[in-house]
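User: Second chain of the day. Same drill as before.
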Amino acid sequence: MRKARLILAIFIVVTLSIGCSKTEKIDMRSPSYMYDLESGFNDNLDVELIGVFNEKEGNFKGSLKVKDRQFDTIMFQPESGLIAYKGATRSYLGQIFINFANKQFTLEIADPTLYTDLTKQAHHGNRKLVISAPAETLEEAMLVNKELKIKRSKQP
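Assistant: Same format as last time:
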């Protein structure tokens, strides 16, 4: 009898721990603004970030649409690298800072090809294209970028 109770207790604990992997569906579609202060480039654009955030594992898996560029499979952990997958090919697009609750994000695009596709300008050196949302002006975009990066630096 004792053995049966122990097995039942283990089964319940295992079932609950597997089932408690909390996920949150994310659908962020908002006006966004992109800029590169070094080159003087700035413009409005639409960005869509759709997928699932697994709170237990701390990662996001979904898709990203930036202007007319569609990335069907992306993965990231907040405040880390944004990785796009196309088949077996893995591409580092840049860094992402995000606040899911407030539906804010800022991407710092480091990929030279994506930089050129979005700006129609040559990528030089370590230049980064910043895309922030929600934002409709350069000032709003810079504020979102600053707020999300400050939040990160204050976390333990």
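The CA atoms of residues 11 and 17 lie 10 Å apart.

User: Great, on to the next one.
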